[in-house]
Write a structure and sequence with these properties.
With 393 residues, the chain is mainly α. It contains 10 helices and 3 strands. The protein folds into 2 domains: 119 residues, PX Domain (2-Layer Sandwich), CATH 3.30.1520; 193 residues, Substrate Binding Domain Of Dnak, Chain:A, Domain 2, CATH 1.20.1270.60. This is SNX7 protein.
Length: 393
């Protein structure tokens, strides 16, 4: 990892803040290499006799030759995003598919279908699609292309062409049968280390997520008290003529500090809480990917054991083992590359989020300090004026 000191050495003559340093470091590679741009916006509510749901506009702009047009605009509902995620997992079982926001938000946080809930989900869906677009393999998935380009009726027709019930049941049975075989005997050490890393990471990121939500709640309670505290001084000034100006000044300071607190809360809700929660969801995805890799490894191990115990049909078993060895190798290589990419993205996201929070805190305390220092300076001037007037004959 490049340290902040190393980044600062790139341009020592320019005043640098931590966030601007990271932004410079992140975008030096040049975003012009991208050829697929996706925007999720314009949420729209739909009310029918059966259900109420939200659709989002998905706008795609691209220069890729496999697309028939350079720009597409479609509307998608949450269930369509779920379908895309399941198709990606089915086609790429050992790649790390980005998480989707949960179907229902946690009780007590945000009311379903409120403006805040819809906007939070819109941002998460926007990030989901752009994570896929930036992925070197997922971005060329055919179902992803159909999701971006097909009209609603075309997408609905394509969905019906998926695997039938018996096929899905067969996949489920194989997965369960593989999972109950016990620990994988020949798992490479690298994947054991990945599993241990994810167990530790899961504990830490869940703890950070809980602490961040607790801090946000405390900030919200504090802001509520400030909103009640300021007007009290204004009312008080009406009955204390001698100190009325000072009391009004205190009320003004509290009001400005309250607005600064609201801005700090907005920074937490926009830049820290979503990132932490996204990686809480990522832990479940990563553990699932590792299990699917182990299932492929377990299938190979069982065939090798069967070959050792059987004297007949060796040629048939040898052919199956060869195919499974290739499958395991492809799965291992795919996961290794995706793992390194995921860790780099995670480290960048965490560094950026916490640096952003630190800068917001600095601005907050500087603003509050300047507010109260200005007020105290004005009171000091008034006090000197009164003392001079009393000294005169």
């Amino acid at each position: 990892d490049t340290s902040l000191a190393e980044i600062n050495s790139f341009s020592p003559s320019v005043p640098i803040s931590p966030l601007s340093m990271i932004n410079q470091y992140k975008f030096e590679d040049g975003p012009e290499l991208r050829d697929l741009f996706i925007t999720v916006d314009d949420p729209e509510s739909h009310i029918t006799a059966i259900e109420t749901f939200i659709t989002y506009r998905v706008v795609t702009k691209t220069t890729r030759g496999e697309f028939d047009s350079s720009e597409y605009e479609v509307r998608r509902r949450y269930q369509d995003f779920l379908w895309l995620k399941s198709k990606l997992e089915e086609a790429h079982p050992t790649l790390i598919i980005p998480p989707l926001p949960e179907k229902f938000i946690m009780k007590g946080m945000v009311e379903r279908f409120s403006d805040e809930f819809i906007e939070t989900r819109r941002k998460a869906l926007h990030k989901f699609l752009n994570r896929i677009a930036d992925h070197p393999t997922l971005t060329f998935n055919e179902d992803f292309k159909i999701f971006l380009t097909a009209q609603a009726w075309e997408l609905s027709s394509h969905k019906k062409q998926g695997p039938g019930l018996l096929s899905r049941m067969g996949q489920t049975v194989r997965a369960v049968a593989s999972s109950v075989r016990g620990a994988v005997k020949n798992r490479p050490e690298m994947f054991t280390e990945m599993n241990n890393y994810m167990e530790t990471f899961s504990q830490k990121i869940n703890l950070l997520d809980k602490i961040a939500h607790r801090i946000y709640k405390e900030e919200r309670d504090y802001c509520t008290e400030l909103k009640e505290f300021g007007p009290i001084h204004t009312l008080w000034s009406a009955s204390e003529e001698a100190i009325a100006d000072s009391l009004k000044g205190i009320a003004g300071c509290i009001e400005r500090c309250c607005k600064a607190t609201e801005q700090r809360m907005a920074g937490l809700s926009q830049h820290l809480l979503p990132v932490l929660h996204e990686y809480v969801l990522y832990t479940e995805i990563l553990m699932g990917v590792l299990k699917r890799r182990d299932q492929i490894q377990g299938e190979l191990d069982s065939k090798v054991d069967a070959l050792a115990n059987k004297k007949t049909e060796k040629d048939l078993f040898s052919e199956e083992i060869g195919k499974l060895e290739d499958k395991v190798e492809r799965a291992n290589n795919a996961l290794k590359a995706d793992w390194d990419r995921w860790k780099q993205n995670m480290q960048w996201d965490m560094r950026s989020s916490f640096t952003n929070v630190a800068e917001n805190n600095l601005r907050y305390y500087e603003e509050c300090l300047a507010t109260w220092e200005s007020f105290l300076a004005s009171q000091s001037v008034d006090l000197h004026v009164e003392e001079d007037s009393e000294d005169r004959p």
